[in-house]
Amino acid sequence: MIRVRDEARSVDFYNRAFGLDVADRLDFTDFTLVYLSNADSGFELELTVNKGRDASYDLGDGYGHLAVSVEDLAAEHARFEAAGFAPRKIVEFAPDGDLVGRFFFVADPDGYQIEVLERSGRFG
């Protein structure tokens, strides 16, 4: 679950970036829960939209984050750039010479950092 300010903007980002569609939407007096998923896995992302909230959320200084795996990292990076998502550079993580993983990060509309991870190395 992550808290977002603008439901439409967040749903659009997660759909265009990761192919997630609205699976369910529960509207309550003070907040709305939006569940996003796709047919590729059983993963589901819950967006919480607190009604009447104008201020950005304090994302803290922890490093917890969401990771999404992809087949072709370079192609996804190029697609993200073309879509205007401003992905960070691709990183090859091989601290002892053996590839552990290849990835890049991208921020969602609320500033959450999402890791886009290639299905290679440890994750292949």
From TrEMBL:
<keyword id="KW-0456">Lyase</keyword>
<dbReference type="Pfam" id="PF00903">
    <property type="entry name" value="Glyoxalase"/>
</dbReference>
<dbReference type="InterPro" id="IPR037523">
    <property type="entry name" value="VOC_core"/>
</dbReference>
<dbReference type="InterPro" id="IPR004360">
    <property type="entry name" value="Glyas_Fos-R_dOase_dom"/>
</dbReference>
<protein>
    <submittedName>
        <fullName>Lactoylglutathione lyase</fullName>
        <ecNumber>4.4.1.5</ecNumber>
    </submittedName>
</protein>
<feature type="domain" description="VOC">
    <location>
        <begin position="1"/>
        <end position="119"/>
    </location>
</feature>
<dbReference type="InterPro" id="IPR029068">
    <property type="entry name" value="Glyas_Bleomycin-R_OHBP_Dase"/>
</dbReference>
<dbReference type="GO" id="GO:0004462">
    <property type="term" value="F:lactoylglutathione lyase activity"/>
</dbReference>
